Model the fold of this input.
Amino acid sequence: MTLKQKYSLHGKDTGSTAVQIISLRKRLREIGEHLKRNKKDVPAERALKKIIAKEKRFFQYLKRRNPDIYEELKREI
Done:
């Protein structure tokens, strides 16, 4: 069972906070790998910073709304 399946509310869930955080984390890894190969890619670096900021806001929201899932997700990611 993947993390996305574990935290999704239903089969086609893409909007819940936990699932969005998991998707952002996957994208962060992809951009991070890209930047390791392409150090001068400034637009990708900017995108990485924007995604990090968005993930931080999602985590803050999740901590306020559902602290139990927040703690569990923090441990697993």
